[in-house]
Amino acid sequence: MIELWGEAVRSIEERVKPANRDQWLRPIECLAISEGRIRLRAPNRYHKEWFEDNFLPSILENLQMRAHTSFAVEFEVPEESPMTAKPQEAVGESVREVAAWRPTPAGLDSRYTFEKFVVGARNQFGHAAARMVASAPGSKYNPLFLYGGVGLGKTHLLHAIGHEIHRQHPDWRITVVTCEQFVSHFIRSMMNQRRQPSSISLMEEFRSYYREKPDILLVDDIQFLSNKDSSQDEFFHSFNALHLAQKQIVLTCDKLPAELPGVEERLQSRFAWGLIAEIGHPDLETRVAILKRKAEIEQMALGDDVALAIATAIRSNVRELEGALLQLSARSSITGRSIDKEFADEVLKDLVSATPQGFSIESIQREVATYFDIKLHDLRGPKRIQSVARPRMIAMYLARKLTGSSFPEIGGHFGGKDHSTVISAVKKIERLVAEDANLRSVVTTLESHLRQR
Ligand code: ADP
Ligand code: MG
User: Fold this and answer.
1) Which helix (H) or strand (E) holds 3?
2) pTM for the structure as a whole
3) Which pairing describes strands 144-147 and 72-76: parallel, antiparallel, or unpaired?
4) C-alpha distance from residue 155 to each of 30, 56, 98, 113, 323 (Å)
5) How far is the CA of 152 from the centre of ligand 1 (A)?
6) Hey, is 266 helix, strand or coil?
7) Of 169, 248, 322, 400, whose CB has the highest number of CB atoms within 10 Å?
8) pLDDT, tens digit, for every residue of 238-280?
9) Could you tell me the distance, in angstroms and rounded to a whole number, from the CA of residue 156 to the centre of ligand 2?
10) pLDDT tens digit sequence for 158-188
11) Which is the closest atom of ligand 1 to the Cα of 149?
12) Is there a contact between 130 and 144 (Cβ–Cβ < 8 Å)?
């Protein structure tokens, strides 16, 4: 077991300057690891705290991946003399050096780097713009606004910018959020403020988190601001503060700024202040190149003829291409057949004939149950408690809206409910969506999840 610790430490060592490694990492001793617990020894309390803040999260993450379990950490720190408790005098220069090192910012997806992004005719400009911004953040193109359809690589480029900036400026704070996270963080802070108006509010923390702290702000799927007036207002102020301080902002969106419905004009115009770059649908050549690249990453043998067959059959977007590749490899490992043209054609026939983007009542139920963290069984069943009844009504509403199924048919999927029950549920949610901004945002979120599947 104890080797596990050594391995996890080594996995982060390469990202740490040798001086820091000797000063901060090596002196931490692992005394014992057992089921779910680790005992460590640090030379002093100050050292322990530095280690906890700067290295421990990455090491633990790595360790948990290796061991498939989580660990509670205990420290042993020798009684210390007052001398060693004074950090500045004790460790001087190297403290500042360590302060400059941060683990990869939370929220950045490690798969989405520039190295893994395949450049083709339709995303070339977006890619170049992203590279430019990453190499000279905050200077010229602020904000960078990346827009395009679903599954075309916007999120990938957004995160790639984050990784590249982190590589060049490891001490910068990179804040990466989806717009949905921004909005829900804002709503939570605001509700807290209403409940406890006098306390130092979450609202102040929220503001400093977005306005003061970031050196870079990356926001994914900004279209989510549509029709959310107070969130827009808040974002407007964050945007201005960062822009004024010449901090780089990068936004992704499924539309052009001017086409964003329900977004104030002053925001639309700010979104267009910098550089707007479209990410288009990949052409055939790029689709083939992406497939080959993914296969290489997954160490999967993929012949040119097979890649061409997939790229010809699947045109919609890169996410679907990835899905097809995954299906192919899964089915080949189940059936033991090798991935040749004949096998690919069979699998593709199934994939392409499957109803494209079809919503089923089941898929809606699953999405709603996951979102509210309730059991599918309860969602479909007769329970009347509010925590289940409300999600059930939302699921019925979405089923009606997205599948167009008849009321009795929908009722049938919810344990044989009467059609009048379904009608009144759908009516109720329709009314609430019009009146209640929070509920509206829940419903839009669910819809957008479903559409992206
Ligand atoms: P979007 O945010 O535009 O909906 P994503 O960035 O999530 O799309 O991309 C969907 C998937 O396709 C991701 O797994 C991403 O890595 C992959 N992808 C998209 N474009 C490319 C590309 N040009 N090269 C390699 N992978 C890509
Ligand atoms: Mg995305």
Assistant:
1) helix 2-13
2) 0.61
3) unpaired
4) 39, 28, 30, 10, 17
5) 5
6) helix
7) 248
8) 999 999 999 999 999 998 999 898 999 999 999 999 999 999 9
9) 7
10) 999 999 999 999 999 999 999 999 999 998 8
11) 3
12) yes
